[in-house]
């Protein structure tokens, strides 16, 4: 699976360089949507937006199954479990020090797709509020 994932990633990078494949958004788009608090935008609304896309229709059936397994593994390990761990750490701090105030800052990856850090904390009963760029806290 590692060799397959590496080959697919390299093929995708070669397609990017050749101009036959384009990422649907730029780094500037990510920054703009993040700063505007537009976390429900199409850019942030994909489970696999942080993970290389291994699944494509041109793969033979047995390779497509491998691609789906890898995609599922990455989504679970790199997105869902990471946000669960981070949410648990935040919750533990808040419960351990209930009389203290906290400020948490996270990278954009914690807010992308489903099962975000915000989703995890809201499931735990916390009210989470976005503070737009430039707004005084």
From TrEMBL:
Keywords: Cell membrane, Glycoprotein, Hydrolase, Membrane, Metal-binding, Metalloprotease, Protease, Signal, Transmembrane, Transmembrane helix, Wnt signaling pathway. Its EC number is 3.4.-.-. GO terms for cellular component: plasma membrane. Divalent metal cations. Mn(2+) or Co(2+). GO terms for biological process: negative regulation of Wnt signaling pathway; proteolysis; Wnt signaling pathway. Belongs to the TIKI family. Metalloprotease that acts as a negative regulator of the Wnt signaling pathway by mediating the cleavage of the N-terminal residues of a subset of Wnt proteins. Following cleavage, Wnt proteins become oxidized and form large disulfide-bond oligomers, leading to their inactivation. This is Metalloprotease TIKI.
